[in-house]
Amino acid sequence: MEASLKLLNEYVDISDQDPAALAEMITRIGLEVEGMHELAHGDQLVVGYVKECQPHPDSDHLNVCQVEVKPGVVTQIVCGAPNVSAGQKVIVALPGCNLGEGFKIKEGKIRGEVSNGMICSIAELGLDARLLKEEDKAGIHVLDEEAPLGEEALSYLGLKDYILDIGLTPNRSDCMAMTSLAYEVAAVLNRKVKLPEVKKYDELDSDIRVIVETDLCPFFGAKLIKGVKTKESPQWLKNHLLASGIKPINNIVDISNYVMLETGQPIHMYDYDKMKEKSFVIKTGFHQKAVLLDEKEYELLPEDIIVSTDQGIGCVAGVMGGNDTKIDDNTRNIVIEVATFDGATLRNTARRMNLLTDASQHYIKGALNTANSFHVLDRCADLLVQEADAREIYKTVSTDLNVTEKIVSVSQDKINGLLGMSIALNEIQDIFDRLSFSYTLKESTFEVVVPTYRNDITMAADLIEEVARMYGYDNIPSTLPLMEMTRGNLTPKQSNERFIRDVLVDLGLHETLTYTLTSPSTVNDFNLFHPLDEQVKLMSPLGEERSVTRKSVIPSLLQVINYNQSHASKDVCLFEISNTYAKDEITTLAIACHGVYHSVPWAGIHRNVDFYLVKGFVETLFKKLCIEESRYSLVRVEADNKNFHPGRSGYIKMGKQIIGVIGQIHPLMAKKYDIKGETVVAELNLSTLLNLKTKALKVTSIPQYPSVNRDIALVMDTDIQTYDVVRSIQKAGKKLVSKAEIFDVYEGEHIEEGKKSVAITLTFQDPTKTLEDTIINDVMENILAVVKSEYNAHLRG
């Protein structure tokens, strides 16, 4: 928003204020001044008189002028403007005059003739060229004959002005009206606002009718004025518009724009004589094309608010008037419209039509003061009498104006409590007085009658904000809130998950992150922890493939393996920790491995991925989490399992609960996910595992006494799981068997059918002494007795 200090001075006295200092004060109360500039440039501009004007002897377009720049002082200036002639009062830039952007006037010669200055056009003074008429840019500016010789030109023209570029926040759209901005400045300077006096005239009865057929127009008022004359606006009016970034047109249009600047209320005017039916119907429902004031055709939709005249388009409400009733040079009788329209509807219309005009912006941003509507009409009528020679004023015809007085209460304690201050009662009173807020004070509570132009004040917090900004944000002390100091730590769950990531990365796996959303066709694949008939569906999915939340992370990792294979990356070892969802939310760890895990080609070492590799990852992880082997068991999956290879997969169980799985994916699943070769996966229920009570990790010293190894070969049924046999041996070892490792499993010659031979290395060790053979033999006998009774296993002969 551009605010002219000269126009602002019409409403509050700021003549003694430095523009930069005033801009700083306005910024400190929340109306940020983003920039400041002079309306026109030139520090040595005077009113001159062209006494003589002769053609240049060496040019067909230049003239040599003798110009009196002050009484009795004549100087020669060479001028190329086509409209220069003797007897004119003109704007002269004397030598040394700085016209901005490095353009400085100097004494010199032009084609051999001395030139001591420049005769200027308005455009050369730094005014926005878009707001000037073509004649202002084509030639020099000729002043009226009464212009005083030698006077400072900018002051005489009324162009000595500073413009503030204020960035209004959305809640302070009221300051788009200069009178509202004046109240802010008056409050800062502790001065009074002087509103213009509006002269009342004898008003005649009007034949105009107003009919509102939509709830989107709370108020509509129309006032007939007869006998106006369309002509050029006076200089003061044009200057105020130029300073506010509005192009002057003629006195009728300029008055409507000026009153909008002053009051914030957009105004539209109709040519009364072009209306056959003297009525205005405000409604929606039009769906047609119409030519508007810019002589362009636009399409109107049924939701657009229309001011209809003669059953046609008199005006697209709040946006632009229709071409049929526009004001022109022959207009003598006009109707002034002041109305309130729904801002949201206007915004949609203006944006669609690409007509974000000054008027529409006032409606869109809510800068209206509907309670002031009758005053706005009277102000227009008064100015039309003064500047357009209006002869007859008619009574306003309008809908009912319903204005509800808005009262907001706030106490001194609430103000100080929210601001953390101790502002005295009389200081709060002073602030409300300076803001021109009327109020009643009951003990320490203010009952404030909110001014009708302050649409942003609706509750006590808004009044407290007013007190804070007028008291001065810089005067509010900076204090830290009182709070208990806390140390930032990870939760146990976060700590454990980070630990698991570190362990798996150390084992050579790569962490990945995949989508939580998946397709209904894969949602139940590899699902172990959620019911098959439960799933979470998105209400508005982007597509079928991302429409439900996953119940297992394994399908996502298989898709990653497929992607890598498609890009010639065959050796992949991945893991992901993520949540899966159905009725419950479960945190899971998934591992997927394919190809070669470790390779040293020059040594002939190639470790391919298999079941035992992934099983080793899981066992290592359990050891790191202090989950003892005795707490879980590995059970073969069902023979008809559709997700896992039945001979190379097993569930991890704790009691009867399945808390994980390790295994090779079923060949049919490999085909479904388009994976070539063997892929081994694992998935663990971390929500269960990380909530287990485990023993603390114990660190023991390195044994000082030697260990003893014994190898045994046990013959047993082929369906007996050797993993269980090893656990039984360790239990029977009376804590002297520190390690039991299988190094061979044999079936075939010399072993009867249905049997197998399992070779195991037993390591005996006592941390307190050297073991003797008798002790080891006793333990061995106990071990053989246990495996005989539990598994019917015996030493191989």
UniProtKB/TrEMBL annotation:
<feature type="binding site">
    <location>
        <position position="466"/>
    </location>
    <ligand>
        <name>Mg(2+)</name>
    </ligand>
</feature>
<dbReference type="InterPro" id="IPR036690">
    <property type="entry name" value="Fdx_antiC-bd_sf"/>
</dbReference>
<feature type="binding site">
    <location>
        <position position="462"/>
    </location>
    <ligand>
        <name>Mg(2+)</name>
    </ligand>
</feature>
<dbReference type="GO" id="GO:0140096">
    <property type="term" value="F:catalytic activity, acting on a protein"/>
</dbReference>
<dbReference type="GO" id="GO:0006432">
    <property type="term" value="P:phenylalanyl-tRNA aminoacylation"/>
</dbReference>
<comment type="similarity">
    <text>Belongs to the phenylalanyl-tRNA synthetase beta subunit family. Type 1 subfamily.</text>
</comment>
<dbReference type="Pfam" id="PF03483">
    <property type="entry name" value="B3_4"/>
</dbReference>
<keyword id="KW-0460">Magnesium</keyword>
<dbReference type="GO" id="GO:0000049">
    <property type="term" value="F:tRNA binding"/>
</dbReference>
<dbReference type="InterPro" id="IPR045864">
    <property type="entry name" value="aa-tRNA-synth_II/BPL/LPL"/>
</dbReference>
<dbReference type="InterPro" id="IPR012340">
    <property type="entry name" value="NA-bd_OB-fold"/>
</dbReference>
<dbReference type="Pfam" id="PF03484">
    <property type="entry name" value="B5"/>
</dbReference>
<dbReference type="InterPro" id="IPR041616">
    <property type="entry name" value="PheRS_beta_core"/>
</dbReference>
<dbReference type="GO" id="GO:0016740">
    <property type="term" value="F:transferase activity"/>
</dbReference>
<protein>
    <recommendedName>
        <fullName>Phenylalanine--tRNA ligase beta subunit</fullName>
        <ecNumber>6.1.1.20</ecNumber>
    </recommendedName>
</protein>
<dbReference type="Pfam" id="PF03147">
    <property type="entry name" value="FDX-ACB"/>
</dbReference>
<feature type="domain" description="FDX-ACB">
    <location>
        <begin position="703"/>
        <end position="796"/>
    </location>
</feature>
<keyword id="KW-0648">Protein biosynthesis</keyword>
<feature type="domain" description="TRNA-binding">
    <location>
        <begin position="39"/>
        <end position="154"/>
    </location>
</feature>
<dbReference type="GO" id="GO:0005524">
    <property type="term" value="F:ATP binding"/>
</dbReference>
<feature type="domain" description="B5">
    <location>
        <begin position="403"/>
        <end position="478"/>
    </location>
</feature>
<keyword id="KW-0820">tRNA-binding</keyword>
<keyword id="KW-0547">Nucleotide-binding</keyword>
<keyword id="KW-0963">Cytoplasm</keyword>
<dbReference type="InterPro" id="IPR002547">
    <property type="entry name" value="tRNA-bd_dom"/>
</dbReference>
<keyword id="KW-0030">Aminoacyl-tRNA synthetase</keyword>
<dbReference type="InterPro" id="IPR005121">
    <property type="entry name" value="Fdx_antiC-bd"/>
</dbReference>
<dbReference type="InterPro" id="IPR005146">
    <property type="entry name" value="B3/B4_tRNA-bd"/>
</dbReference>
<dbReference type="InterPro" id="IPR009061">
    <property type="entry name" value="DNA-bd_dom_put_sf"/>
</dbReference>
<dbReference type="InterPro" id="IPR045060">
    <property type="entry name" value="Phe-tRNA-ligase_IIc_bsu"/>
</dbReference>
<dbReference type="InterPro" id="IPR004532">
    <property type="entry name" value="Phe-tRNA-ligase_IIc_bsu_bact"/>
</dbReference>
<dbReference type="Pfam" id="PF01588">
    <property type="entry name" value="tRNA_bind"/>
</dbReference>
<keyword id="KW-0067">ATP-binding</keyword>
<feature type="binding site">
    <location>
        <position position="456"/>
    </location>
    <ligand>
        <name>Mg(2+)</name>
    </ligand>
</feature>
<dbReference type="InterPro" id="IPR033714">
    <property type="entry name" value="tRNA_bind_bactPheRS"/>
</dbReference>
<dbReference type="InterPro" id="IPR020825">
    <property type="entry name" value="Phe-tRNA_synthase-like_B3/B4"/>
</dbReference>
<dbReference type="GO" id="GO:0009328">
    <property type="term" value="C:phenylalanine-tRNA ligase complex"/>
</dbReference>
<dbReference type="GO" id="GO:0000287">
    <property type="term" value="F:magnesium ion binding"/>
</dbReference>
<feature type="binding site">
    <location>
        <position position="465"/>
    </location>
    <ligand>
        <name>Mg(2+)</name>
    </ligand>
</feature>
<keyword id="KW-0479">Metal-binding</keyword>
<keyword id="KW-0436">Ligase</keyword>
<dbReference type="GO" id="GO:0004826">
    <property type="term" value="F:phenylalanine-tRNA ligase activity"/>
</dbReference>
